[in-house]
Every structure is written in C-alpha cells, then in structure tokens.
Design brief:
disordered N terminus, ThiB-like, thiamine binding, signal
C-alpha cells in the first residue's frame, strides 16, 4: 500500500510544519501554517466564505446561479484561506467541473462551536455538512445535543466507492456520520542545532522530556484552546493513565515547560527560538522542504515510539435537504487522486491507503511505530472531566 510507505523514526524523525488548509489563526489575526490543525479559540462567529455573503449573524446568504443545486460546506478557516496552499479553492473548482452543483464554503472563526451554538439556540444552521471534524468535536456535539439526538446524520457507506480503502486506525465514529478524510500525528518538532548546543540528544520518552537536560525546552499549545494541545493531553493520558497524567504534567511544568495560547502562538515562539521543542505535527519536514528551510530546525520526535493520531472527518448535518449531494461530495473527497491532492495541499496524510503521492513526499513524512488514538466510546463522558482536572491543577501553575 503506497500510503503506508512511511519511514519510521524511533524518537527522532521528520515531519512537518503543516502548511495550507490546516493552518490555524493566531491571536494577531495572521494565519500560521499547520498540518491538520483546526485550532481556533472557541469564541466569535466571523465567517470566511466563498460565493455567498456573510450576514451579521454569521450565516451565509446567496443562491446558486441558474437554479443549480447549492451545497454549503462548513469547515475551519485555514482550509480555505491559509496563505500557502489551502485545498478549498482547488476542491471547489474540481467538484464543480464534474458535478451539476455549486460548492460554497463557510468557515466561521469558531469552527464547530458556531454550528453547535446555533443548534442549541434553535436557529437554522443553513449548512449541509462539515469537513474537518475531529473525534472530540463529535463527542462534544453529541453530549451537548443529548437525548439521543445528533447534530449530524449517518452516511450510507455503500454509496462511497472508496470506503473500503479508509485506513482502519482512522475510523472514529461507530455511527458512520463522520467519514475520515485526512490525518496527521501529534509529535514533537525540535531544533537539532539548539539541542547540539546543549550537548543532548533528542528526547525519546515522555520521562526524558520532563528531565533536567530539557529544562525550559518545551512549548505546548493550551489544551483549553487548541486541538493540538488537547490531543497531546490525550497522549499523556494514554501513557500515564487517568491517575497519573496530572502528575506528569506537574513534572513538565516543574521542568520549565511553557503553555501558550494555541498552536500558532506556540509555533511562532518556537520559530523565534524561544525554546528548542514544540508540540506540533509529524509532517513538519514536508513544509520545510517545500520552502527550502533548514531541516535541522524541523526534526520530529515520537515519544515512547508512539504518536497521537490527529483525525479529520466529513459529516452531513442532520436536517440537510441535500443528503444525497453531500454524500456525493464525500465520495468525491475520498477518491484516491483527490485524497492525494488534499494531503499535499494540507501537508497531511490521506485517510485512504490507495492514494498515490510523489516519492519525495514520503521522504519527508514519518509515522510512529505505535498509533495512539482514543475512540468515540473512550472519549464520551471523559473529555470534559479530563480537561477540567487539567485546567484546575495545571493551568493555574
């Protein structure tokens, strides 16, 4: 399987600084490149949209010309407006060239929170599906809606021609509402030059990371505001358990680890040499190679030979009157050639095992020996208490 031709690094490797559509917005309004990252603060409702007009409440007005069916697709802002190679415009052009439909992107700054808040307020969502749904987003939505209801509706996978090629490790919704469309891995990105100056090797275990040689060495996105930081927290829970992860975080903080607002803020600080390591994504070198950056500053480390899977899915909203067209769009997104294009533009990984990417792409992608990921059932009922305990004990240090 071509997609699985990844080199494997035991504790030190490569991978990337996600460019393109998975970038996340920073506090100053700029957008940083990032792989598979939908990190955005859970506030605000400003929308980025194409082929429509954003109204005062953030909804999208506008109709397709000539009576052509209009498919409104929600996503996170950087999927459509990152400064390098967002896949949004390419997907729109390619989809409209093959289907008798018009695709309209809608990307509120608060991402999934925007749609969940409208549902809770009893206001129409006016969007047909969401692309970029993380497992914890789905769990949070289900818990918020409650009473056996759902913000999303299931897809008949028999209508998805390439569904059989979806990587099993990337499936996260037992009800098949969210269909995997992309992936990456949470990892360390580190500056080999700085570690050489410290006369230390890259850390290979979680315990290494909290030890004296790496004092004041790590930047972490805040799990309260950042998908990247939240999934790093999940990774530590997998390693140390519910009874041990807070002690580990206390060790990290005691060793000078800094927690910053979100992924963009943390990566900016890392790029400005404020620390030699940052929690980021394992596709970092793809971006670095694309822009001729110093590879020594873009090394990747997998702790305990593992990496947490950052997953993205596409799910139709319940109540859409275009479920058939939404399913056709997901089927289109899952095509091997479309998956390959999205992965390259998003500096991420395909969700299917039959997407063929250039050999050079695989030269700069690493995959952990062990894939760590909490499934739907593990996350249901646990995300809020885990994060609440972390916030109470760690965020106040």
């Amino acid at each position: 399987m071509d997609r699985r031709r990844f080199l494997t690094a035991a504790g030190a490797g490569v991978a990337g600084l996600m460019a393109g559509c998975s970038a996340e917005s920073t506090d100053d309004g700029s957008t940083d490149t990032g792989s598979g990252s939908t990190d955005t603060p859970a506030s605000g409702g400003t929308a980025t949209e194409t082929d429509g007009t954003a109204t005062a409440d953030g909804t999208v007005a506008g109709t397709a010309s000539g009576g052509t069916p209009l498919l409104r697709v929600g996503t996170y802002p950087s999927f459509v407006d990152a400064p390098s190679s967002s896949p949004g415009a390419w997907l729109k052009e390619r989809f409209e060239s093959e289907f008798d439909a018009e695709l309209q992107w809608f990307a509120p700054e608060s991402s999934m929170d925007y749609f969940l808040q409208r549902r809770q307020q009893g206001v129409s969502i006016d969007t047909d599906l969401f692309l970029g749904l993380a497992p914890e987003n789905l769990v949070r939505a289900d818990r918020a809606v409650g009473d056996g209801d759902s913000l999303f509706t299931s897809v008949d996978t028999a209508d998805l021609s390439n569904a059989g090629a979806i990587v099993d490790d990337y499936r996260f919704d037992p009800q098949e509402r969210a269909i995997p469309v992309g992936a990456s891995y949470i990892s360390l990105v580190y500056n080999q030059n700085t570690l050489d100056e410290r006369s230390v090797e890259a850390p290979t275990t979680f315990d290494d990371l909290a030890s004296a040689p790496y004092e004041n060495g790590l930047l972490v996105p805040n799990p309260q505001n950042s998908e990247t930081g939240l999934e790093f927290m999940f990774w530590t829970i997998d390693q140390f358990g519910e009874d041990g992860y807070l002690d580990y975080w206390s060790d990290l903080m005691g060793n000078g680890t800094r927690i910053l607002q979100d992924w963009g803020t943390a990566y900016d600080a890392y790029s400005n040499d404020e620390a030699p390591m940052v929690v980021s994504f394992s596709t970092d070198q793809v971006y670095a190679n694309r822009y001729d950056q110093d590879m020594a500053r873009h090394q990747v480390g997998f702790l305990n030979d593992s990496g947490y899977a950052y997953l993205e899915g596409a799910a139709p909203f319940a109540g859409t009157d275009k479920l058939g067209l939404a399913t056709e769009f997901i089927d289109f997104v899952l095509r091997p050639e479309v998956q390959a294009e999205i992965a390259q533009r998003n500096v991420a990984l395909p969700a299917v095992d039959n997407a063929e990417l250039p050999d050079e792409y695989y030269d700069f992608v690493y995959e952990p020996e062990e894939i760590v990921s909490f499934g739907y059932d593990e996350l249901m009922g646990n995300v809020e208490p885990w994060l609440s305990d972390w916030s109470r004990q760690i965020a106040t240090q």
